[in-house]
Design goal:
The chain is built from one helix and eight strands, in the order H-E-E-E-E-E-E-E-E. By secondary structure, it is mainly beta. It has a single domain, classed as Immunoglobulin-like (Sandwich). The chain has a four-stranded mixed β-sheet with strand order 1-6-5-4, with no helix packed on it.
């Protein structure tokens, strides 16, 4: 048992839920991601070296932003001295808070960098309230 009251088994189950189901042999990559927050939105930036936008699938369902796709062989059948990038699938999932307006999520992929804009709903954006003198 962990000290926060959750059992180790329950924590393991949660971790397993976020992993993709294996449907074929090969490697599954976990892209590196940075997430930035402003008053208006969250911005997710994922490194996907060698990945074209048509090889990326991004979807929002049941409160999760799910990033999947496939990294293809980059240089064909070459004799490598060192090869750190391989062919395989990639997967990442993020729980999205209800403060994000899912209907306005936008994404672009440029030179292997995926940028996803997750705008906040108007109700959660901070606003300045003028205080009037009387």
């Amino acid at each position: 048992m962990s000290t926060n009251g959750n059992s180790t088994l329950a924590q393991k189950d949660v971790a397993q839920e976020s992993a993709p189901e294996r449907l074929r042999e090969g490697v599954t990559f976990t892209p590196r991601v940075d997430i930035l927050e402003t008053d208006k939105e969250l911005t997710l930036v994922a490194d996907l070296p060698g990945v074209r936008s048509e090889d990326v699938e991004l979807r929002f369902e049941k409160g999760q932003l799910i990033l999947t796709g496939h990294v293809k062989q980059r240089l064909g059948e070459k004799q490598f001295v060192l090869q750190e990038y391989g062919e395989g699938d990639f997967y990442r999932a993020f729980a999205i808070h209800e403060s994000i307006d899912a209907t306005k999520i936008e994404a672009s992929c440029k030179q292997g960098v995926l940028t996803v804009h997750l705008p906040k709903v108007e109700a959660v954006k901070p606003r300045q309230i003028a205080v009037k003198a009387q």
